[in-house]
Design a protein that fits this description.
Order of helices and strands: HHHHHHHHHHHHHHEE
Strand content: under 5%
Structural class: mainly alpha
Helix content: over 70%
Distance between the termini: 9 Å
Number of domains: 1
Radius of gyration: 19 Å
Largest sheet: 2 strands, antiparallel
Shape: globular
Number of strands: 2
Number of helices: 14
Length: 320
């Protein structure tokens, strides 16, 4: 099991708050504005903020020419499908439903890792995945009837979650020799170009100046989501094991549900409160430090039995 550093914990807390609150923000933004255009504007305005962060931190922008093919693949799995699908899901569903379905991602990630990446999960990791899955089901308890009439929105959110899970696994194993912030910047550039082309192709007849509500929601996404959150996630996804990095943000849909309830008047039931406890169990199961003796025994076993990536052995829960 991986122990978070103080810096990682700080990033995680801010990331959770920003992404959790963004679900009702996005709902406000796309309710009366073209969704692809909303996303494209947010990205293009956010890119200079992200670039300024790289300059201030003295992070080089350069990506080796040989790595661009893999970078496009990382952008496709981590951002292209996610942003296209989830923005339409948010418009179709309530912000709480979209958040819940989008954050089935850790479940997809665990299954994909076990099936395709030779990353079998230990008992604690399976406990976390099971708790997260049960939490999602509880959060959906009172939503099933409402979603029955919106199958396209539900499907889009689940497809987005599955591709993000695949992207997280790929990002953890990338061989692109570049800082995480540089990778995040160029993935955002590629996605902004794609979203801009799609918005111009399909939504240009609907283009109108955004009103005050749409304007501030675009700026919120530009500065906090694309200027900070995506770069922070890329850093965490590269530094933490896949299960830890994904389950560690499972409080985001919980925050999305309750912020949507307070802000947009979406109903909250007892199942939602139980789900909060289950999400905490999921997080603790992958982040709580193991006893030194057990950790040592697992490390020895992983050196003897697991494949290597970059000379580093896998641990029994699929972490590195």
């Amino acid at each position: 099991m991986h122990v978070l550093t103080r810096r990682q914990l700080g990033i995680l807390v801010v990331l959770t708050l920003v992404w959790g609150l963004n679900w009702p923000v996005m709902k406000l933004g796309v309710s009366n504005y073209p969704p692809l255009t909303f996303r494209a504007l947010s990205m293009w305005i956010g890119l200079p903020v992200l670039a300024l962060g790289l300059v201030v931190l003295k992070v080089p922008f350069r990506i080796p020419r040989s790595a661009w093919r893999e970078l496009v693949w990382l952008a496709a799995t981590n951002m292209f499908v996610w942003h296209i699908c989830i923005i339409f899901a948010v418009r179709t569903l309530s912000s709480g439903r979209a958040a819940i379905l989008g954050y089935t991602m850790p479940i997809f990630s665990a299954v994909i890792g076990a099936l395709f990446y030779a990353s079998p999960l230990g008992r604690r990791a399976w406990t976390g995945v099971s708790a997260a899955a049960l939490g999602v089901l509880l959060l959906l308890w009172h939503e099933l009837t409402g979603m029955a009439g919106r199958p396209v929105g539900v499907l889009l959110a689940l497809v987005a979650a599955a591709f993000w899970a695949l992207g997280t696994q790929e990002l953890r194993r990338t061989r692109v020799e570049a800082p995480a912030l540089a990778i995040s910047f160029w993935m955002t550039v590629l996605t902004a170009v794609l979203m801009g082309v799609l918005a111009w192709t399909f939504e240009s007849p609907q283009w109108t100046p955004p009103d005050a509500t749409v304007t501030w929601t675009i700026l919120f996404n530009a500065v906090l989501i694309f200027g900070f959150a995506h770069a922070a996630w890329t850093t965490l996804a590269r530094d933490l094991p896949p299960v830890a990095s994904t389950l560690s943000v499972m409080m985001i849909p919980v925050l999305g549900v309750f912020s949507g309830a307070l802000w947009l008047g979406e109903a909250v039931h007892w199942q939602d409160w139980v789900a909060v406890g289950l999400m905490m169990v999921a997080i603790a199961s992958v982040l709580w430090p193991v006893r030194a003796r057990v950790a040592g025994r697992e490390a020895v076993g992983s050196r003897n039995t697991e494949p290597h990536v970059r000379g580093t052995p896998h641990s029994p829960d699929g972490s590195l």
